[in-house]
Design goal:
Glycosyltransferase; three-stranded antiparallel beta sheet; 12 helices; 14 strands; about 375 residues
């Protein structure tokens, strides 16, 4: 039997002692509201721009901790601090959400990306659960309805592609909708929720599933076919694996063991393909046919890819007892804690070179905020507790 209790304490204690205090102590903008996410290794602010999706993610994180770990008033206060800033400054006149703002809250980058809206929805839903205040629930529902209306054209007129030449649809939106459907809980109409979950299961597990490899494509044609192009051959291991634990959660809710087993198998296939046999760790981008990828950062090792993989492996083992999940969990757990965790200043490094050395010592920036690490540590803590 694995020493699940010792592992549980590693994830729980690092979350509560090393990660959450890092963001509590360093990220709060007491002058203008919201959060700083551009933090160096020690937590010092190196840029004051504010990115809407990271603001929403941090609101979600602190509200989630309040809802699920402990009703600590300071956590709720931090969540409300960010939610107030988002509501005051985050939206354009048409109700869509900007990508980034100045420190004061003036818009910098237009609402070109639907993921700002997605994380604003998650934030407002958690605030509704935490406070019981109807205006948060109403806002979560209205943003979510807007997302559903836009999902066939998420970038609207902001897309750079000429759609008539090589139309493709991307995996990220059905992936995040599968998580949102769970996150919104009772806020969503039950019939709409079930219909949406049916749709996203089909999209994630059939349309984007590449049967020849047993893995998930990042882009397919509108008809769901393979495109032999840079974009069509792209595998994003982290995206695929993160989506698989969303599918396992849906499978658990629905009692669908076949869905759980397929998600577990896709997770294992993806790890076996993406594991760097020379240096260890999971590669950032790959070509499904093993051709050269177009992303120059393809061989970096990223924090979120590894923590999402640890969640998926633990859930796969919990639900199926497939020993391959624990075999890989031990390997990736050891790599991740050795390479990413910073025992001196807390939190995790985000970006490593292929050989595992630190590429950037920052703890947060334009793409990394208070989300994947705390959510992942919390998820692993909970699953290990059940095991």
């Amino acid at each position: 039997m694995e020493d699940f209790k010792a592992l549980e304490n590693i994830y729980k204690n690092y979350l509560l002692d090393k990660v959450i205090p890092f963001w509590e102590n360093n990220s709060i903008d007491h002058q203008h509201g919201g959060y700083f996410t551009c933090l160096d290794r020690e937590g010092k602010v190196f840029d004051t721009d504010k990115f809407i999706w990271l603001q929403g993610r941090q609101v979600w994180t602190f509200a989630m901790l309040y809802n699920k770990v402990e009703q600590r008033q300071s956590w709720l206060d931090i969540a409300k601090h960010g939610a107030d800033f988002l509501i005051k400054h985050g939206r354009a006149s048409d109700g869509t959400w900007y990508f980034s703002l100045t420190q004061e809250g003036k818009p910098l980058i237009a609402p070109y990306n639907i993921f700002s809206d997605c994380f604003a929805t998650q934030a407002m839903a958690q605030m509704a659960f935490a406070t019981g205040e109807e205006h948060y629930a109403h806002l979560a529902k209205s943003i979510f309805n807007s997302i559903l209306e836009r999902r066939n054209n998420p970038k609207r007129n902001w897309s750079k592609a000429i759609p008539e030449t090589r139309p493709l649809k991307n995996f990220a939106l059905p992936m995040i909708l599968s998580n949102l459907a769970i996150e919104l809980g009772d806020i969503m109409d039950p019939s709409l929720k079930n219909e949406l979950i049916d749709q996203v299961i089909h999209e994630v597990m059939e349309v984007f599933y590449h049967k020849d490899s047993g893995m998930i494509l990042e882009n397919v044609t509108p008809e769901g076919h393979f495109s032999d192009s840079f974009e069509g051959r792209l595998l994003n291991p982290g995206h695929a694996i993160e989506a698989m634990w969303f599918m396992m959660d849906i499978g658990e809710q629905r009692g669908d063991q076949a869905l759980i087993t397929k998600a577990k198998d896709i997770t294992l296939h993806t790890i076996e393909y993406a594991w760097d046999k020379k240096y260890g760790g999971l590669l950032y981008f790959m070509d499904i046919l093993n051709k050269p990828p177009q992303q120059l950062e393809w061989d970096q090792k990223l924090w979120w890819v590894h923590i999402e993989t640890l969640i998926a492996l633990l859930k796969g083992y919990m639900h199926t007892k497939d020993e391959r999940c624990m075999h890989w969990f031990k390997i990736i757990h050891e790599y991740t804690w050795e390479q990413f965790a910073d025992p001196e200043f807390g939190e995790w490094y985000g970006y490593l070179r292929r050989d595992g050395s630190v590429l950037l010592p920052l703890k947060g920036g334009k793409w990394k905020g208070c989300y994947h690490v705390p959510r992942g540590l919390y998820q692993c803590w909970q699953v290990l507790g059940r095991l």
